[in-house]
Amino acid sequence: MSDRVPMTVAGEASLREELNRLKSEDRPRIVQAIAEAREHGDLKENAEYHAAREQQGFCEGRIQDIEGKLSNSVVIDVTSMTNTGKVIFGTTVTIVNCETDAEVTYKIVGEDESDVNSGKISVTSPIARALIAKEEGDVVIVKAPGGDIEYEIDKVEHI
Fold it and tell me: Span 10-20, mean pLDDT?
């Protein structure tokens, strides 16, 4: 995994918090559960033991995943950059549907941070890919499953 992983300051902090929780709380709890299950005897037919081992596998896998992403991360803080009106990673963009005049605001974030319900879209999403490098006032066409949708970029903010 040599690809750089872009993330916002908040995204990096969130991943570091999750990593800390996994290492300091979840991992010790799982190790304790495995030790208790071992005390119950025969491991072949011990469902508690197998469940705890499975949890341990998921936990260790997630720890490796987060550590890999953090080691390859490029933290981008748009609040320290000059707002040129151009859409870049980390900016908050207000777009208007050209057909319906419906207005929507999205923050372009890394894949781990995306949450459409809270207005955060992944930089790899079709909408973000269409918006990147465009400027306020530009009209973009988003290739959506239901057909192409035209949006006008109303506002680009560095917040």
Answer: 95
